[in-house]
Design goal:
Layout (H helix, E strand, L loop, with lengths): L34 H5 L5 H12 L6 H21 L6 H32 L1
Length: about 120
Amino acid sequence: MFCPKCGTENGDDSLHCTKCGKPLKTVTSSSGSDPISTIIPYKNAKALIAYYLAVFSLIPCLGSPLGIAALVLGLQGLKAAKEHPEAKGKVHAWIGILLGGFCGVVYTGFILFGVISAILRK
């Protein structure tokens, strides 16, 4: 068996590459697909957390920090979903990126506008 990352030849019973340590075999469920992980990508925690942070970033007072965190975790979750397709979570990651990024930018802009207008009034 050859490593998909570095190309090193390993024994057929090897679980990890002897050179780089990348897992060679993935454990799958007996049915072959997990319908729950399609709806809730629990194998991709960063994408799932990004999704929930993006939803809660709609709350005005919390929108700026939660939106920025959702954006960052969404990008990391999207990267994880591309590296490990079985983990799923691309849609959750994109929602975190788009909604979290939008709320983070908009609420940060409101905060900056308020601070600047207060400074200019003095």
